[in-house]
Amino acid sequence: MSKSAAELVFQNASIVHPTGVEVGDVAIAAGLIVGVGSGLTGKKIIDATGLHLSSGFVDLHTHLREPGKEEAETIETGSRAAALGGYTAVIAMPNTDPSQDCVAVVNFVRQKATEVGLCEVVPSACITVGRRGEQLVPFAALHEAGVRIFTDDGNGVQDPLIMRRALEYSRDLDIVLAQHCEVSRLTEGAVMHEGECCSALGVPGWPSIAEELMVHRDIELVRLTGAPMHFLHLSTAGSVELVRRAKADGLPVTAEVTPHHLALTDDLLVGFDSVFKVNPPLRTSADIEALKDGVVDGTIDAIATDHAPHAAHTKDVPIDSAPPGMLGLETALGVVNTALDISVVRLVELLSWNPARIAGIQDRHGRPIAVGEVANISVWSSTATWNVSRNEMASKSKNTPYHGMKIRGKVKYTVFNGELVVDNERAVR
Amino acid sequence: MKHLLSADDLTTDEIIALLGMADHMAEVNARPVPKVPALRGKTVASVFFEDSTRTRLSFETAAKRLSADTMTFSASTSSLNKGESLRDTIETLSAMRVDAFVVRHKSSGVPLQVTEWTDACVINAGDGWHQHPTQALTDAYTMTREFGTPQTLSGKTVAIVGDILHSRVARSNVSVLTKLGAKVVLVAPSTLIPASATEWPVNISHSLDDVIADVDVLYMLRMQQERMETAFVPSLGEYTKRFGLTAHRASRLAEHALVMHPGPMNRGIDMVVDPADVPGSRILKQVTNGIPVRMAVLFTLLGAGNASQLTQGTDL
How many Å apart are CA A222 and CA A229, to the nearest integer? Predict the structure, then answer.
């Protein structure tokens, strides 16, 4: 294909490769990258001077709420939010209603997302039927239907026998189990991190140990079974240290942190604003420092949003009855870029390359920027600052904890399967 | 002062001023006709989402003695039972032109949330385990007036005994009493002390017997049956053995020491001795004092804040 046939060309972009950043042009046609170099032209030319161009971001942890809670988010609105955040793929968490514990629901989610076409929605599935922690889902049938990542997210799998069996059984298949680490008996009624602010506010606390006990248990189950495991949204200093040691022992574990656990602390709850209620809860600045250390030294493999939309009226209730969760897709890059002092290469590794590999979609996401690759691309500024407003979210819900805050880093363009779906900070549909 | 949500929001000067205002109100209460027109035309809605005897009646009596109109909302007979949300309930009442909401709720933080849904004043009448500021003001009033030191509790030791973790009264009292200079000792098993109470301006003890002889005020809290279900204590019997006020323990109190309890008492568990047999008991005095203190709060928030209004037109 000749260079002039390109449909879309980014000129003069700072292209992020694993080896470093290189300024050049990227040409796209028929869904693929058809040129990387200089002096490329095409039908639509975008001047990307001063912008980073990388493989599209991959979110390991997105709640799209459809089916079941369409008042909070739909696959369409969530896909739009994802595209605006620079994501070309999101892993849809299975705590829908009905939950993604069978092939029919998984196929529904995938079908719906394909019709929307703003990003790839990769359904995960539950570990246990109905996320009740009792009976294993049909792993093989779901694997055949394309599911690669399984989790009861929202609930930790409490029963050590079920977790052991799930790990053993999953070893036969090319899949990964992702654990929401929370010993639920220690967090009954919990509103926030068990610490100073919690003691003053007089609300039930969510102690760090409730996460760390399960991280520890599951590391030992991984050691026993040899099956891989991914740890979702780690939030405490102790968890990071446990995973660090497990990796040093050569165990097949990976871990993610959320942008909010890197940026926000528990004392934000002082005004009882349920927008800051999230599970696991916001922790202390000491935990943030430990998470950042983990990000820098490689203990943490990925940044994942835990994008959790909730309709306003469900959050506008006494804080102990408000559902936990906050928006994350549209602000992830800015929050992480503001909170972390790391290279853009490491940033893309955390937001794209590693999560694509963990989710088992590395054949089409988190790919090199090279001729012949599928054009799943994000183009973004690491220096542009903007004020977050809950009234300007593409998500159907407004529960962003960053309302009124200024963050640095903004997605300008997103290309999904060769189509420009975000053009100069606007979704094309 | 627009709202009274937490004792933490009060400065020492504001506390002293409120207690001083309560003296004026106590004088009104002592009149043959205990009523002044200070809040005539104002409407006070008491909105209780949780059961209460003394606090609701105390607030309603206080409002009436200031000639405010009162509106009583009780959760059990309301549209909450038809699924109406808390927010809609408050906005509905607010639309009837309410000047002050007196709010009690089992969830911490609700009075603060209510301030976002109405322009009226909001007074916290107890939220979850969080705060009960008018109880703490009442207790500080009772202590300072008993000791004859209206501006301070400096040099006094107050032991708060029992289930601190689940107690809004304890949190408010720690705040008010320490601001007035009292030395506060929390006495409870470790399971019933908040995780971060070590950061509070208090001492912590796990033995009532160790501290009882040295206190100026022994402040007992109610111990609830349901605390055993989640293993906070092995049994109520063992709790009583360590932390209940028995006749023997009461006999070790200093002669001048006061015994207080916010009620309701759990007789035989936190109060084993009959308070009538304890000379220092001020438990009923606390209830009496609740009215002038709540009058002072209502008048400070809703009135012109000018005590001269209290001397006008004593008869209606």
Answer: 7
